[in-house]
Each structure stands twice: as C-alpha cells, then as structure tokens.
Amino acid sequence: MPQADARVYVYGVLPGADAPKVSADGVEQAHVRTVEHAGLAALVSTLEGDELAAAREVRAHWRVLEHASKSATVLPVRFGTVLEGDRAVRDLLLEPNAERLTEMLDELAGRVQLNVRGDYDEARLLREVVRTSPQVAALRDRVSKVSDSAGYYDRIRLGELVAAQIAARREQDASLAMARLEPFAVSARAEEVSSQNGAFKLAFLVESGEMDTFGEAVGLLREDLGERVRLTYVGPLPPYTFAETDLSAGTAAWA
Amino acid sequence: MGLITGLLTLPLAPVRGTVWLAERIQEQAEDELYDESAIRQGLLDLDAARQAGTLDEDEIAAAEDALIERLMWIRGLAGEESHGRIE
Amino acid sequence: MAAVARSGGGYLERPRPSGLADVIDVILDKGLVIDAYVRVSLIGIEILTIDARIVIASVDTYLRFAEAVGRLDIQQADDSQGLPELMESMTSGGAQSKTKGALEGVKDAITGGDDDDDDKDKQSSGSRRSSSSGSSSSRSRSRSRKSS
C-alpha cells in the first residue's frame, strides 16, 4: 500500500504557518508529521499495526498535543481519531472545513485553557451537614437507636436528606466559583461532577496575558471557600474543552 | 466511603445492624466500581510515586494503563456518541 | 498551587502543570470530533476495551473467590507483564476484604479492591449501571453546560 493511503492517526489542527515548528513522536512512537492544506496543518502519524494499546496511546496523544501547544495554537482532535490516509485528511477534514477550522484557530489564538476543580473533604462535609441541619441530626439520632428493620425507612430518608444537602452545597459552591472566575475568562464551561466528593469541575479559556489576573481571582476564591472545599488549579492546557464547533457562541457572550 | 456509612462513623456513631451494613457496603462497592474519583486518585498516587521514585516506571506505566482502561470501560468507549461534529 | 506575592486583594496563584490525572477526562471526552463517516474504527481500542472488562471481571473473581475459582484466560499484549501477574505481585496476600474502601495507595491502584456482585453488568458489552442510588455516582456522557 502506498504511504499516502496508509491509515493515519490525527492529533490536532494548527495554522499551516506553524507546521514546521512541530516535531515529535506519537502513537506507536511513530514520527508526527503534518498534512497541509488551505493554510491549515493537521498533525498526524502513520499507523503501522492494526492494534493499538489504547491506554498507552492516550499518553502519546497527550504528549504530542502538549509539545505542539508550546509553539503554536493547536485545536485538539478527539482521542482515537483515525482517518484512511493523508488524502482523507486533506479532502475530508481540511478542505470542507477550512473556513470553520481557521475561525476556531483564530478564536483560540493567544489563549489557554485553565481548569479549576473543587473537591470536598467528605468527613468535614458530613459533619457540617449534621451541624447545620436539625432535621438530619434528629433523624440520625433516631436511626442510631433502632435495629435494622425498624430503622430501614428512616435510613433511606436520612440518606436522601444528606444527599439533598450535599447537592445544594455543590450547587452553591459551583455557582460561587463560576461567578468569581468567569469575569476573567474569555469562555467558561461547567462540567458534570463525576464523583461523590466532587464540588465542581470548571474549564476556562483565558487570554495568556490575563493569567495573572485570573490567578488572583483563584487565590481569592480559595480563601473564601475555606477548608471545606479543596481547590485544584491546573494548566495551561491545550484547549480540549473549547475545541467545539459552537465556540463562537461562547465567545460572543464576551465580545 | 458511602454517605450513610460515613455519616454513621462520625463521633457518636451508633450500633449498626449487620444486614443493613452489608447492603450499604454492596452499594458502596458498586459505586466504587463506577466512581471515577477512585481512578483519579489512583493516577494521582501513581504520579506521586513517580516523583518519589518508590516504584519503577514500568510498574507505574502498567498501573496507569490499567486505570485508564477501566475509565474507558466505564465510559463505554467502544461505542461512544459524538459531539461537536464538524458539518 | 504555589501562592506568590500578594497583589491586589489576594494571593496570585499559578496553576500547576497538568498530570495524567488532570487531563485524562478532557482527552477522552473533549476535542474536535470528526464526523463518523470519515473515521476508521480503531480495532485495537475495541479489542482492548473488551480485554479490560475481562481483566476487571477476573480481578474481582480472583479477589473474592481466590481459593475456589480459577482465573479467566486472557490474551495479553506482548510487551507488558500480564495484568493478573502484575496484580498478583502487588497484592499482599490477597486478603482483600469486602469492606475495603476506595483505592488506597499506589499498590492498590491496580487491584482496585472493588466488589461487584452484579454479574449482569459485567457480561453485557460496554454497558453501564443505571444510576439508582443517590448523588452523582455513575455518569454516562460528560455534558458541559455553557456559562451564560
């Protein structure tokens, strides 16, 4: 099979002018190269085998994007994207979408993604719930005094009350965090929290030049959240979360 | 730990019935299988081990792979839906 | 998370560089999606996903019925030490009780220490448990809510 038709793994898209700056090893430790068209460059590598150890290649995907982002604005492509060959990359990805891709790259230029997440210390959270809700405290007390069967429905009810309290706090804390940080970002997303101890998971697109101001807001937020919420501030990342075709709707709000 | 179990292990914890407890553990175990925070914590721990040099890189990488695979399984990545498609 | 000199009202925070734990979510779930018809399915990933399920099932079985039930046969990747072997070398004495909590420490990161009595979930391919109990346990797709 001619090289041009060999399947290719696609990492991301960047401006054609920045293509020469990127050189890295990617999936299967294959050399990462570019397919260029219409002022755009797709970061790809040729796939030799039929099998990919998916978990291992997540790392390669990550590494390539991190590396490329050091010297260019890169639109990350979803992990696991394979196209039929260079021709497909050119004719099916870059050509029909040139305008939209260029637009997206313009919107992301000079901006970075910063993630802010909050997690609860569960013991502390539960203590606070018991302390601040007389209903929970009373029910807990009652439940502690009876047998399994006698207290069964009370236990269910207790669990429900606690869960509702936690959900309310989650919403409060997430709203606070968003309200504090949003004003310093170009765009913001709230992700669904996927663990019991999670308070919020936020992604922000921030101007590189504004990172310090954003960082001040994070510092203030940390102080105000206190010890109940453990804040994690991570970045800068390639703009994975903002590589959406409806990005312009988000930025328009800040225009 | 599960909400209810956690609640009742606070100071002033009462006597717990074993049947009820077994049920909570079952729920908790199921929650854990799907609880992504455990995976995240595992990855954080592995990174810490890497920094501290307490495990060698091969072991760490294999452990990370296992966690990533589990996460992929949880999210059913064999047949995911798309979002943000290019038109 | 290092706080730097005070500026304005608070400490100016610098973000810490992302680690695998921080990016795994966005890598798997975010990024530009190229419409299905141009995507070639990645055979390796599918096989591996199935293997991962088998591996998870066998780990649970091993932990719970170590004396009674033999391990499942698993196809291993060439270069890696087989996952069960690796786990065996890392599990201390296999004394994993049912009440074991969330992943504790690095060694347990592989063994998982979970018990799932619900065989139904393990057998169907790629299925997820439908969420019954309480708050935010299993999550299907990550949905992002745009800020207004």
Could you please describe the fold and organization of this structure?
The complex is a heterotrimer of chains A (255), B (87) and C (148). Chain A has 255 residues and is an alpha+beta fold. Helices cover 46% and strands 24% of the residues of chain A. Chain A contains seven helices and ten strands. In chain A, the strands form two sheets. In chain A, strands 1, 2, 3, 4, 5 and 6 form a six-stranded antiparallel sheet that branches. Chain A has a four-stranded antiparallel sheet with strand order 8-9-7-10. In chain A, helix 3 crosses helix 4, helix 4 packs antiparallel against helix 5 and helix 5 runs antiparallel to helix 6. The radius of gyration of chain A is 24 Å and the shape is elongated. By secondary structure, chain B is an all-alpha fold. Helices cover 67% and strands 0% of the residues of chain B. Chain B has four helices and no strands. In chain B, helix 3 runs antiparallel to helix 4. The radius of gyration of chain B is 18 Å and the shape is elongated. The termini of chain B are far apart. The C terminus of chain B is likely disordered. Chain C has 148 residues and is mainly alpha-helical. Chain C has a domain of 93 residues. Chain C has five helices and three strands. In chain C, strands 1-2 form a two-stranded antiparallel ribbon. The chains are: A alpha+beta (255), B mainly alpha (87), C mainly alpha (148). Chains in contact: A-B, A-C, B-C. At the B-C interface, helix 2, helix 3 and helix 4 of B face helix 1, helix 2, helix 3 and helix 4 of C.
Rg on CA atoms of chain B, Å: 18 Å
Give the biggest sheet of chain C.
2 strands, antiparallel
Oligomer state equals: heterotrimer
State the distance separating the first and last CA atoms of chain C.
Answer: 28 Å
What pattern of helices and strands is seen along the backbone of chain C? EEHHHHHE
What's the story with the biggest beta sheet of chain B?
Answer: none
What form of chain B results from the Cα inertia axes? elongated
Strand percentage of chain C lies at: 5-15%
Q: What class, by secondary structure content of chain B?
A: mainly alpha
Shape of chain C: extended
Helical amount of chain C? 25-40%
Mean pLDDT across all residues of chain C, rounded? 46
The helix tally of chain C amounts to 5
Fraction of residues in H or I helices of chain B: 55-70%
Number of strands of chain B: 0
Low-confidence stretches of chain B: 9-16, 78-87
Low confidence ranges of chain C:
41-148
Order of helices and strands of chain B: HHHH
Please give the most extensive interface between any two protein chains, plus how many residues each contributes: A-C, 74 and 52 residues
- The overall pLDDT of chain B, averaged over residues, is 65
Class inferred from helices and paired strands of chain C:
mainly alpha
